[in-house]
Amino acid sequence: MFAAYAARIDRDQPLNGLVLGDRPAPQARPGWTTVNVKAASLNHHDLWSLRGVGLGEESLPMILGCDAAGTDEHGNEVVIHSVIGQTGHGVGPDEPRSILTERYQGTFAEQVTVPAWNVLPKPKELSFEEAACLPTAWLTAYRMLFTNAAVRPGDSVLVQGAGGGVATAAIVLGRAAGLRVYATSRDEAKRKRAVELGAVEAFEPGARLPQRVDAVIETVGAATWSHSVKSLRPGGTLVISGATSGPSPKSAELNRIFFLELKVVGSTMGDKGELEDLLSFCAATGVRPVIDSVLPLDRAREGFEKMAGGDLFGKVVLTV
Q1: Where do the H-state alpha helices sit in the chain?
Q2: Which terminus of the chain has a lower count of CB atoms within 10 Å, N or C?
Q3: Cβ-count burial of 201 within 10 angstroms (0-12 exposed, 13-18 middle, 19+ buried)?
Q4: Which helix (H) or strand (E) holds 320?
């Protein structure tokens, strides 16, 4: 079958390890099911995999891709939850959880096999392309907002780095849930787009906000950390799920964190129940993922290049 896969690790030039070509079709295994992929979406996790983060040479070649929607062996339209081994379903009792492409072949292919427990019904209201955007970036944003920040309608939120998949999802979900959303971006066009999607205002990074916020959604890391901490009200919550600009800020702002009793919460992905809730939320409210572009799988390299260069707003989707 045709697939986009990592053939080698290159930490400096990750796209050098990306190959488009034939790979063996997945083999049946007890407790697992095979899904015919209709659409899959890119995540920064795929670029990190090509750099060797979470993926070792001994696991190559590895088909990339965490997210997918398609049809199961019975023709049902489904969405894949990409965290494998979260509850022990389909794996050994002592196996730690992992994301597709770390231990098991991913979704950038005509077929993918996953534990049957990891397959959820796709709401009829969502297209395959829309549904394929949800299991990683949008699930991450959903968990950051509603589980780890525990914000409620009427609360205020700052989303750093508008344009990225998680940040874009947080703006749209926050607006739909009745939050007052502020956003930042270095790019004027992305700031304008953030407002169009529901942000009350969008600012350059580091700008003073009209008010201190109840929560900050942080995926940028070092470059925005100080601003994130300073933007919180006393007792507010900073939720971080990534550090695309690096993990080591110049100032940790520890004095401000303890004096104002701020909460710093790490957040990774989400669980199957939260994905079910997210799918239902989108179906019921009309919220839809923001899609930057849709490309056929044989043009996957173009999608990777867009993501690597930051030249996108929303998700890149590959169709099979």
Answers
A1: 44-50, 128-131, 139-142, 165-176, 188-196, 225-230, 254-259, 272-285, 300-309
A2: N
A3: middle
A4: none
User: How far apart (Å, rounded) are the C-alpha atoms in residues 310 and 163?
Assistant: 8
CA distance 233 to 42: 34
The Cα–Cα gap between 38 and 55 comes to 25
Q: What proportions of the chain, in percent to the nearest 5, are helix, strand and coil?
A: 30, 30, 40
Task: Write the pLDDT tens digit of every residue in 171-194.
Answer: 999 999 999 999 999 999 999 999
- 133 within 8 A of 291, measured Cβ to Cβ: yes
| Overall pTM > 0.85 | yes
pLDDT in tens, 5-62: 999 999 999 999 999 999 999 998 899 999 999 999 999 899 999 999 999 999 999 9
Residues 99-118: tens digit of each pLDDT: 999 999 999 999 999 999 99
Which residues lie below 8 Å from residue 260, measured CB to CB, with a gap of 6+?
A: 232, 233, 234, 235, 236
- The distance in angstroms from the start CA to the end CA of the chain is 11
Could you tell me if 49 and 6 are in contact, meaning their C-beta atoms sit under 8 angstroms apart?
yes
Angle between helices 272-285 and 165-176 (to 10 degrees): 60
Q: Residue 23 corresponds to which tokens in the numbers above?
A: 């790979």
Q: What does the CA dihedral 233, 237, 241, 242 come to, rounded to 10 degrees?
A: 30
Degrees, nearest 5: CA angle 19-22-24:
120
Mean pLDDT, the chain, as a whole number?
A: 95
| Average pLDDT over every residue of 120-141 | 97
